Amino acid sequence: MQPEEKFNKTIQTKLPETDFRAHLRETSSQMNLKREAAKKLFGNYELARLRASYTKWKVNESLDKFLIDFEASVVRKGGKVIWAYDVQNAQQEILQIAQKHTKGKVVYSRSAVSDEIELKSFFDSKSIPLKALDFGDFILNESGTDFFTENTPLLSADVQQVRNQLNQSIRVSMDAEVADIAADIRHSIRKNFYQAELAITGATFLVAEGGLVVQSENSAAARMSYAFAKTHLVVAGIDQLLPSLNELDLFTTLYATQKTGENLQSYLTITSPTERDDIDGPSEFIVLLLDNGRSNVLASQDQRQALSCIECGACNDVCQVFNYIGGSKNYLNNQAGPISQVVKPLKSGLAEYGFLSEHSTLCGKCTDVCPLKIDIHNHLIRNRRDAISEGVIDTAERFTWFSWSKLMLSRKNMNRQSSLRNFTFKSFFRKQWGEERELPKIAEKTFNQIWRERNGL
Ligand code: SF4
Question: Which fold has domain 41-290?
Answer without folding.
Answer: Rossmann fold (3.40.50)
